[in-house]
Amino acid sequence: MSLRQHEIAEAGHRILNPLTDEKLDLLGRICRLAPGDRHLDLCCGKGEMLSRWSAAYQTLGMGIDISHVFLEAAVLRAAELGVTDQVGFHRGDARDLFGPELAVEPGAYDVVSCVGATWIGGGTEGTIALIAPALKPSGLMLIGEVYWIETPSAQVAEAVGVGLTQAATLAGTLDRFEAAGMELVEMVLADGDSWDRYVSGQWRTVDQWLRDHPGDPEAPGMRDFLDKGRRSHLTFGRRYLGWGVFVLRRRN
Fold this sequence. Notes:
With 252 residues, the chain is an alpha/beta fold. The protein has helices spanning 3-9, 21-30, 48-57, 68-80, 124-131, 154-160, 170-179, 192-212, 219-240, and strands at 38-42, 60-65, 87-91, 109-115, 135-148, 182-189, 241-250. The protein starts with a helix and ends with a strand.
């Protein structure tokens, strides 16, 4: 999915992943956030996690994303929840965290999250290595990642758009965390229903977009995205593909 397709398909979503509202709130409780805790969210999308947790726990947040469309929505959401003075959003490439454009402060954050965007580090272990320097020694890292419910064939992996070695089983995902020097301390997993709500919400949004923009140059690509994504999810995704947010700490 291209960034533009992502922006169109998720125009109606607040949470840009398969977590439900209830599970996002559960994840916040798991993190045991305290007033004044600092949270850095990479590829933050519409900033729902940052703003919602800031409103609930009086945390301070910084979100980074490359989509101006999503960041505009994030600013509006922060204002809606009354946390504009507690969270800020910056457009930039999360792969250059400590560069002059973003200038993230090393070792300053109680929570560092990258939920559903481990492409920034070329995979799970690379992303952990990329973002760990921003984390306080005792801080929490949240990694949102797909996993294989059962190991697929190469043909199935191609159909769902996830490289065969890009994802691992849950046990294999644990191996990756441990190889990166992290301890898995909690997790919140999507279930079949929350996956269905996430992807079928995209179908509805794209269907309406196609009806509203029949002559748009992007319409053929969005039609292809809709047709392939729908069939892929129903044929293979529900059986093989899981998703979750994994709560990590540095290993002692």
